[in-house]
């Protein structure tokens, strides 16, 4: 359940995105927009940079009054992801999973090239990502 502070932070960021994303042409510009000092009411830090041109960008957003959010930004071109994000039933199933964080909100906004950009807000959970947690060491 979101607190009023969390809802306010989410609304502020969503308003910025709705206003500014149509002026952008790629995901990196959206991150720079969020990182801009003009929006000093929150902090933005990179959790994962895109590894290829249309890979997701994941950032942590926090302010002094609320819990942190994770924001995943990617092009809305993956049918399986869109299928899940657009289905209240499947989102509920994900929320019931013990190994997944809660999706707080998801929406799309077209950028300056009319590519739909998907924004997915999750509750932030501090920890080590799975790809770094389990490293295999082979003995000779």
Automatic annotation (TrEMBL):
Protein name: Uncharacterized protein
Taxonomic classification: Bacteria, Bacillati, Bacillota, Bacilli, Bacillales
């Amino acid at each position: 359940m979101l607190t009023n502070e969390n809802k306010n932070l989410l609304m502020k960021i969503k308003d910025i995105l709705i206003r500014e994303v149509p002026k952008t042409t790629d995901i990196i510009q959206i991150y720079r927009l969020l990182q801009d000092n003009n929006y000093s009411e929150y902090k933005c830090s990179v959790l994962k940079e895109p590894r290829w041109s249309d890979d997701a960008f994941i950032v942590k957003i926090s302010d002094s009054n609320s819990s942190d959010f994770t924001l995943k930004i990617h092009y809305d071109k993956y049918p399986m992801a869109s299928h899940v994000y657009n289905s209240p039933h499947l989102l509920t199933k994900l929320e019931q999973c013990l190994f997944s964080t809660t999706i707080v909100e998801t929406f799309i906004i077209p950028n300056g090239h009319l590519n739909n950009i998907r924004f997915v807000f999750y509750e932030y959970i501090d920890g080590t990502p799975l790809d770094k947690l389990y490293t295999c060491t082979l003995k000779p």
